[in-house]
Write a structure and sequence with these properties.
It is built from nine helices and 16 strands. With about 375 residues, it is an alpha+beta fold. A hairpin with an 8-residue loop joins strand 6 and strand 7. The longest helix has 20 residues. The structure holds 1,6-di-O-phosphono-D-fructose.
């Protein structure tokens, strides 16, 4: 039996600003999804990161299945209705179209899906970010799948030694999806050359070269490409299979502990470090520092074990303390230089419009 894992995420309204969904909204979304467990779905798990609600579901319908996407759409729509009743901020923010048209791609929510034949033991993790950009996972995933300095399995395990295949998306393409497929380690420098630009390029999927098995998928939607203007952030979700022929769960820790500077945070217009946090953490009132959470599960016949929170053990408190220092240091320079995004990446356009007016005053 082939199992499909689908992760679907949307910001449909939050309490007191762009912070977190209310309990009633979360409960409504979960209720709609849970009704289908045992029918359309094998299992479901609902959580949030900042103000984004994440649905993890398992089923046998394959990726991009209209019934699965419609269920998520329904859950987000009914959740939005509750958010409106409660007067929450940004109710329905990520639902950019009024009607469902067979697929969530292009409607606003972030989607990552993969299909595979379950291994006898099938550990996997779900990563979800808030207040950042689709390329936010580029560096940690590059390090864990392609760099032996971080990924000890690349040296120590014959299963990992042949390396991984990266499918990378050009996020600037608005007309059609545009990908390049590059093999590590042979094309390492080319992979690095693309992934360094996390505003423009994002990993879409990663594959084991030895076994041809899918290892990771990342959502790559840019909301701006759909709406033609800034409407909220394109913070990614990812599904990653781990252990044996893939990197081990704990090998993901050090790359995420680096907390690279990524685009996002307040008004989607600055650079701050990507902070690993526990699942169900509200957005930070420290300038909306970008956040990533991770839950790992074991899968059996398409059903989930209870989750383990990947960034909850005591090491992460120390990491977070350092990330906060890094973030505070950057914020000290306010609008200046790399603290604020380059002009073409700014999600609020007020400054660009003002500069055009100022141009007229030059002589
Ligand atoms: O990053 C933010 C929101 O991100 P989000 O859409 O929740 O991913 C915030 O910093 C907002 O940009 C900021 O609070 C201003 O919001 P508005 O007043 O324009 O809604």
């Amino acid at each position: 039996m082939k199992v499909t894992l689908s992760v679907l995420k949307a910001d449909i309204g939050s309490v007191g600003g762009h912070t977190l969904p209310s309990r009633r909204v979360l409960a409504k979304v979960e209720e709609v999804v849970r009704e289908e467990v045992g029918r359309l779905l094998l299992d479901a798990h609902v959580f949030h990161i900042g103000d984004d609600i994440v649905l993890l579901v398992s089923h046998t319908q394959g990726p991009r299945n209209p019934a699965i996407h419609e269920l998520a759409w329904k859950a987000f729509r009914e959740g939005t209705q509750v958010a409106k009743e409660e007067g929450l901020y940004g109710a329905g923010q990520d639902l950019l179209k009024d009607a469902f048209s067979g697929n969530l791609h292009g409607l606003g929510p972030q989607v990552a899906e993969m299909e595979f034949a379950e291994r006898p033991a099938e550990p996997f993790m779900v990563l979800a970010a808030d207040k950042t950009e689709p390329g936010a996972f580029n560096l940690p995933l590059y390090l864990v799948f392609a760099d032996p300095m971080y990924s000890s399995g690349l040296l120590l395990s014959p299963d990992l030694r042949p390396g991984f295949r990266f499918r990378i998306m050009d996020l600037a393409q608005t007309e059609r999806d545009s990908y390049i497929v590059l093999d590590a380690p042979e094309r390492l420098y080319d992979i690095a050359a693309l992934l360094r630009d996390s505003h423009r390029f994002g990993i879409e999927s990663i594959w084991s070269r030895k076994y041809g098995e899918i290892a990771a998928v990342v959502s790559t939607t840019r909301l701006r490409n759909i709406a033609g203007r800034y409407v909220g952030k394109d913070d990614p979700v990812a599904i990653i299979r781990t252990q044996k022929i893939f990197p081990a769960t704990e090998e993901f820790g050090p790359p995420f502990a680096l907390a690279p500077f990524v685009a996002g945070d307040t008004r989607g217009s600055h650079h701050l470090p990507l902070m690993p946090v526990r699942a169900n953490t509200p957005a930070s009132t420290f300038f909306c520092v970008p956040m990533v959470c991770g839950l790992a599960f074991s899968l059996k016949d398409g059903r989930f074990s209870e989750p383990v929170d990947l960034f909850a053990d005591p090491v992460w408190d120390t990491v977070r303390a350092k990330v906060v220092e890094k973030a505070q240091e950057m914020r000290r320079q306010g609008f200046y230089g790399p603290a604020m995004l380059p002009m073409e990446e700014l999600e609020y356009t007020g400054i660009a419009e003002r500069l055009k007016e100022l141009e007229r005053e030059f002589s």
